[in-house]
Amino acid sequence: MRTRKAILPDAKDIHELICAYSGDGTLLPRTLPEICENVRDFVVLEDEDKIIGCGALHLYGTHLAEIRSITVAPWAQGKGGGGKLVKALLAEAKRHRVDCICLFTRKPDFFVGQGFSVAQREDLPDKIYKDCHACPRFHCCDEVAMVRGDLPKFAILPEPANWVQLQGWSPNVEEQTTSR
Length: 180
Ligand SMILES: CC(C)(COP(=O)(O)OP(=O)(O)OC[C@H]1O[C@@H](n2cnc3c(N)ncnc32)[C@H](O)[C@@H]1OP(=O)(O)O)[C@@H](O)C(=O)NCCC(=O)NCCS
Fold this sequence. Notes:
Elements: E1 2-5, H1 11-22, H2 32-37, E2 42-47, E3 50-61, E4 64-72, H3 81-95, E5 100-105, H4 108-112, E6 117-118, H5 125-130, E7 144-149, H6 163-166, H7 173-178
Parallel strand pairs: 4-5
Antiparallel strand pairs: 1-2, 2-3, 3-4, 5-7, 6-7
Bound molecules: coenzyme A.
C-alpha cells in the first residue's frame, strides 16, 4: 500500500470513493468536474495498482490548509491506509510551509490518533467564510473542528455577504430609511 499525488485519470476513482460516503453526509459531495479542477489537491492510496483511498489538502495560505475528502474503501479499512493518507497530506502541508492544518469531521477519534486536537469553529474564519456560511446546517453543525499546529491569527478570505445576518444581527434598514 502506498500513497502518491493524484493525476487527472484518477478523478473517476476518486469520485466513486467519495460518493460511497457522501450519501449519508460523512463526506461532502464532490462532483466529477470539481475533482478534475482540484485534482492537484488530491493524494491517492494505491494497492497493487488499484486506487483504494484518497484525501485532499485545500490551501488557504501559509496560515491554514484543510484536509478534505479523506476516505479508504470500506473493504480496505483498518489496515493503516487512512493513517498513510493523513501522513502524506501533512507532508504536503509541510512542503508548503503551512502553520495550521484543520479539518471538520464526525470521526474525531481517528484524527486524535493522527495528532489533531479539537478546536472551535470560530478559530477558523476562513473555513466559515468559504463553506460554512452556505451550509444549511450552519446553526446546527454536528461536525467537530480539529487542528494540528498553530491556530491562524487572521483570515485571508473576505466575510461573505450574508455574514451579519448569519450571526443573528442585522441592521434595521427600514428604520434607517424612514428616519432620514
Ligand atoms: C476514517 C478512515 C479514513 C480511516 O481509515 P483506515 O484505513 O481505516 O484507518 P487506519 O487503518 O489507518 O487507522 C489508523 C488508526 O486509527 C484508528 N481508527 C481508524 N478508524 C477509526 C475511527 N473511526 N475512530 C477511531 N479510531 C479509528 C485505527 O484503529 C488505527 O489505530 P492504531 O494506529 O492505534 O492501530 C476510514 O475509516 C474511512 O474512510 N471512513 C469513511 C470516511 C470518513 O469517515 N472519512 C473521515 C471523514 S472527515
